[in-house]
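Bench log, entry 3. Co-assembly request; chain sequences pasted below exactly as received.
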Amino acid sequence: MKITITRRRLLGASAATAFTTALLPRLTLGAAPLSVGSLTPNTGGGGPFGPNIAAAHKLVAEMVNGKGGVLGREIALHQENSETNPETAIRAARKLVDVNKVIGVLGTWSSSVTLGIMPLCQEANVIQMCTSSSANIPLKDKKGLVFNFMILSPVWGEAIGDLALRRGYKTYAVMALNNDFTKSMVDSFVAKVKAGGAKVLTEPFYYNGGQASYRAEVSRLIESKPEAVFIPSYVTDFTSVYKEIFRQGYEGKVITVSIATGSKFKKVVGAAADGILHGLPVPSLGSPAYKDYLKLVGLKDTGAVQHPFGTAGHDQMSVLLLAIASAGTDDVGKVRAHIHKIANPPGKTVSNVLDGFAALEAGEDINFTGASSDVDFKTPTGVLKSRDFMMWEIKDGKDVVVETIASAS
Amino acid sequence: MLSYLISMATFVGFFMILALALNLQWGMTGMVNFGIAGFYALGAYTSDLLTVEAGWPFLFGVAAAAVLGLAFGVALSFLSMRLRDDFLAIVTLGFAELVRLFALNEDWLTRGPRGLPIDVRPLSGVFGRDGYAAFYLAIVAVVVLAAFLVNERIRRSPYGRVAKAIREDDVVAEVLGKNVLRFRVQVFGIGALFMAVAGALYAHYTQNISPDHFTPVVAIFIWMSVIAGGAGNNKGLLLGAGLVMMFLEGTRFLGEFIAFLDAEKASAVRIILIGVLLILVIRFRPQGLMPEEKFKGTGEPAPEARHGKFVMQGLNRQNSKKGG
Amino acid sequence: MLQVLFNGLINGAILAPAAIAFTLMFGILRFPNFAIGAYVTVGAFSILFFDQVAGWHIALATVAGMAVTALVVWACDLIVFRPLRAYPSVSLLVVSIALSLILENIIRFIAGNDVRGFDIPLSRPIKLPGLKFVPEQLYLLGLAAAAMVAIHVLLKYTSLGKAMRATADNFTLAEVRGIDTAKVIAATWLIGGALAGLAGLLAGLDLVIEPLVGWYLTIPVFAAAILGGIGSPFGAVAGAVLVGLAEEVTGLWFNPAYKVGVGFVIITILLLFRPQGLFGQPEIKK
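Structure output for the full assembly:
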């Protein structure tokens, strides 16, 4: 059977589909649902992390809906894929903001995406919650609507530098993935170790992700034979880079960020991962929120770093919903003020959104402590306050804590 | 919903300008340009840096972008002298990647991966939020119209006939004294100019650009618009751009129906769907969305309809292929 | 210096099988197949399946994976490309891009975004004066060389190979002379798919296995094949080695971030002086 697609039929069909599916959700009955947007990197560079964030958003929303929603309204979660690409993410955010009329866009991960959608979110008075570490983010947030659940990378770099110095390494070489996240981290790491009397043997340099080989980069990194190398990057390229470092026979210490060395990395690299040092901002040791999160997503507590971004997703949704409940309205101006109220002390410490609702009902002030961090913001900004930092060493395929500090941002 | 549609229309507008520019380069002269993102980025960064850092007014920024686009377009077009189409595709892709790498690594100029914020907009503050969106759409529409008219003008002019001659037989055209190279350079340059202008408009619209915005994926979308729309007809191109955008964005709305899948799988399904739709359109509507326009006066298909200038070692394809 | 040459050679070895596949497909089917990267990804994941899920020895897993990839690639032709055989090559290029996205996302749907690797432990290098290498890299070189020899033997000495060469030279003439071009085309896809499967092994060993792994190889593979001259498998290998070397040398002398870009520049310069590539046929530009 020959199918003829006439121009009119094709355009008509496409338009009809688009409009019908756009209108459909509006035909549901009941009180107006509360629209929340979730924009996560499900493909592209952030691909390993986005789905965890999205799943966390969904689980918290479902949990709350199961108990009657917020302010008697059901939470309508609209999820989109940012593709770790600001060019497409902007259009996705447009849909969330203009069509779904969300109160907040949660879950952006790459700084270029968070910054890319900021102009339109600010213009439309929409809250943003992200895990991006560009120092530009607080600078561009003119309305105090952006809440960052990840520490800014200069702080991260300084903390890891501090921890590295404590391990006693005197000579370093530095190489990083070329993006916003790592650039400021490298600068502050280098400053910190130099201030501590150590030497950085080669000029820090950057490599692009997604290459067919990393041989030249690694050769350059280790040729001066430093005691330790610092390589902040993401798990996909770090895995290839680390394999090459190992194969080129480097015997010194490899230091990186914990998001690059999760369980999947360890599985790929096997015993060769032993000896890697990695650091991550963490919630207080053994936090009940983290344990709750693991239960919520069905993971076993292995003591290793799991879902560093999924935990943040859980906290984002919890904080937003608690703030709405506390404010008693979905007016963005009030909600944002209440985010500070419920996330910061003083108040009864709660680590679970349902416990938080119960406490609010009872008229108590709360201080939400999350699975990814204590979630205390430096009011009036959306920048996180003091953070604990931990450094682990991989021994026999497991993460063993070797250093801890409480850093002040 | 209206502001969403206006904003989508604006994005389609950028695609349309790029598709028309590409058709100028490929349809007129057969030069396969996969480096669209390179000119797009040049325009965006040029206008951005000049208006934000050097304080130039918006129009001058866009004009500078146009000039730079033209210059690089002309330079790149000289390569077509010696390179076959498929090779030109790779080389132009390399150009785009070089531009992107430059933007990524030379942060002293471009702020590298952090990206550049752009606060400068024409007549900002004059309209409210919705009014401004409509105003900007109008600006983009004007440029689309300009690109369309330039395209049509060239197609119908003596230049257009020269293009047909070149497409038919380079060597003969050359022998007859038509300056093939000069024509190619001019047309490619104009195409690049429009791509750069589109980039400048894009930058001022989204107000934040970084090297991530200018990956080879841009070239892929635009080529899809041109092929799906049918290179034989400029109006078809506009439809093609609209269709690609509709596929890209319309499939978002299907998310409500596949909510039972987790986010990763849902995203994968959406992209699979886009790929399948595109292949279906190309398969069942091979001439593109609009029929080839007859070349005035000769009753033959327009020069740019003869797409497929990948000439392989004297191969002569017949439509009546047997077997596979 | 020796190390740089060796590294370039390894880079080239990883690119070579895919470049051969690409150039064969281009020579016989007349269009640049952008999905080559996706085929490599399919290869890597297929071998991974046999290696980890079925628990087979890596050598057996590789053979099985190559077979699966060959079948998948051939199936793609039957479903996607065959109905479009008479279309201009630019349309086919665009279709191959769409196919690439589809394949990549089917894999993502099934296996997710996480990084994976074969069950092969990493090893420390053997150190000689001026040269470091790991045994695994010798396997890479050996396999790539074996692939090249196998294809060479196939094309030069077998009747299928001769038919393939005739078809690549002049399709219509080949048909007129009674060559079963349908069979040649099917063979091209199967062989190309198998080569892509092998490339999947090499990439998985050297880099990581994830849905985007083939995509990252696509542009260097294109460059290698075009540099070497379309339709010439030997050229593809030479091109792969040159591209591999260019990247190493750039990484060493210049900012490694521009590695990919410099590869393009070198290719452009070479093509300007020799438009048919190193080993391609010169042609009258028409």
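Chain C touches chain A through 46 residues (CB under 8 Å). Residues 190 and 236 of chain C are 18 Å apart (CA to CA).
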